[in-house]
Amino acid sequence: MRWIVWLLLLLAVAGWLAAEAPLPTTPAPALSDTPWRRTRDGWEQATWLAQGGAQSQPDLHPAVVAIWQLLASILVLAAFGPVASQEARRSAPPFCRP
């Protein structure tokens, strides 16, 4: 049972580190000085290359979500695992015991 506490503590620290980790940024595509591009229809202004609005960063890092999922899974397994079912085994009829 003591190892579960250490594992949960390790997961909590890993989650905190993942929450503090900076998100990777993708470099913006390099645009030339002129917005004009040669197309098969002739020279056109390249409005499709204009960057849209500023992209917002996600609220949570994906590693934070993964850490919370692991933490929840371990807590559920610890709560409903073999330790909790030992009392049920003792109270079961003799023909149902393993």
Descriptive account of the structure:
The chain is mainly alpha-helical. 49% of the residues lie in helices and 8% in strands. A hairpin with a 2-residue loop joins strand 1 and strand 2 (42-45). The two termini are 23 Å apart.
The structural class is mainly alpha
What is the ordering of alpha helices and beta strands? HEEHH
What proportion of the residues is helical, as a percent range? 40-55%
Shape, per Cα inertia axes: elongated
- Strand proportion: 5-15%
Spans where pLDDT lies below 50 across 5 or more residues: none
| Largest sheet strand order | 1-2
* Total helical elements: 3
- Average pLDDT for all residues: 75
Radius of gyration: 28 Å
Largest sheet: 2 strands, antiparallel
Euclidean distance between termini CA atoms:
23 Å
Report the count of strand segments: 2
Which descriptors apply to this entry?
mainly alpha, two-stranded antiparallel sheet, elongated
What secondary-structure arrangement, pairings included, does this model have?
Elements: H1 2-20, E1 36-39, E2 42-45, H2 62-80, H3 82-91
Antiparallel strand pairs: 1-2
Kindly summarize this structure in a few lines.
This protein has 98 residues and is mainly alpha-helical. It is 49% helix and 8% strand.
